[in-house]
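Input record, target 12 of the design panel.
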């Protein structure tokens, strides 16, 4: 996977973590007062998918927008510090970079727990100039990139109407993957999608497993088939939390148990790790089942880390070597 390019049209988000230690209960209101320890900013949303591709040794080629505010400047600097090309990241004056601020508290030497989160949100509409820049860069990358990701968090930088343009520019042989929080069905005609179970159920208008302790295999197969056909996709990878992942292709499916343990530390950004790893593996020549297995392992690595995280090639190799269960218990439908 080293050096493989992946075009990434993404909503760029900043994740900010503010940590403190408990001080006392406020006399003004029944709330905990923290003694401030520090804060850090990491790539979030589509930017986290970009960071994950880079962490695995790939070459992400992001297209997106940040504001000229402090969070936008810090996010852009963070991405550049990871060696990520930033020619396709537009800095828009007056725009507030979407930011998710998490307040965490805990003992000085203990794991900090999330207490509250607030979001700074502003949606945008791409200008003709921004669309033109994206199109010109797509043409420049067309000869080398064979996989593209559209990571839509609803902030406006990712437009379903760009899908035909990406297809036409990168060529019919390119594989286009999408991850959309609210409107995946508007990206119909893509090659692959990676919704989580909740998103898949929302699109279908029904539950997949009846909330029971065990899957209904027939119901799961029917749901996966219906959603894949509705999206007109070649393959559909549904992430299912502690139940692992399910990959659906025409006439076949594969169900992967969760990698590692289901006693996770933090699921923040795990979906971004999944689509980033999945896409990079496809760019390296893996078939969808192999790519799903690698994405499953990478997801198992990052949920054991606190906050928005990435997976390195060394961590991925170690996970495969030490946990054979996803390979041994892979179930075909």
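The sequence produced for target 12 reads:
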């Amino acid at each position: 996977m080293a050096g493989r390019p992946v075009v990434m049209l993404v909503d760029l988000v900043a994740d900010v973590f503010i940590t403190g230690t408990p001080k006392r209960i406020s006399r003004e209101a029944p709330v905990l007062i923290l003694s401030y320890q520090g804060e850090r900013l990491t790539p979030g949303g589509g930017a986290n998918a970009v960071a994950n591709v880079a962490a695995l040794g790939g070459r992400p080629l992001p297209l997106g927008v940040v504001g000229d505010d402090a969070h936008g400047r810090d996010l852009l600097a963070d991405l550049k510090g990871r060696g990520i090309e930033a020619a396709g990241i537009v800095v828009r004056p007056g725009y507030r970079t979407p930011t998710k601020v998490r307040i965490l508290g805990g003992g000085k030497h203990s794991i900090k727990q999330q207490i509250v989160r607030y979001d700074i949100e502003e949606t945008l509409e791409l200008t003709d100039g921004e669309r033109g820049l994206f199109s010109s860069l797509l043409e420049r990358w067309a000869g080398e990139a064979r996989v593209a990701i559209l990571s839509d968090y609803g902030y406006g930088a990712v437009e379903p109407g760009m899908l035909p343009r990406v297809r036409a520019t990168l060529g019919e042989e390119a594989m286009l993957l999408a991850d959309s929080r609210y409107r995946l069905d508007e990206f119909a005609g893509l090659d692959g999608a990676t919704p989580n179970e909740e998103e898949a159920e929302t699109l279908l208008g029904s539950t997949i497993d009846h909330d029971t302790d065990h899957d209904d295999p027939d119901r799961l197969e029917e749901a996966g088939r219906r959603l894949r056909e509705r999206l007109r996709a070649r393959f559909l990878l549904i992430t299912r939390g502690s139940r692992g992942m399910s990959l659906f292709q025409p006439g076949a499916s594969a169900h992967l148990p969760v990698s590692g343990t289901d006693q996770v530390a933090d699921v923040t950004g795990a979906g971004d790790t999944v689509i980033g790893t999945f896409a990079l593996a496809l760019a390296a020549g893996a078939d969808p089942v192999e790519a799903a297995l690698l994405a499953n392992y990478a997801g198992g690595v990052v949920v054991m880390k606190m906050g928005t995280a990435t997976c390195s090639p060394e961590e991925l190799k170690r996970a495969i070597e030490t946990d054979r269960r996803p390979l041994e218990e892979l179930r075909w439908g």
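The chain has a mean pLDDT of 93.
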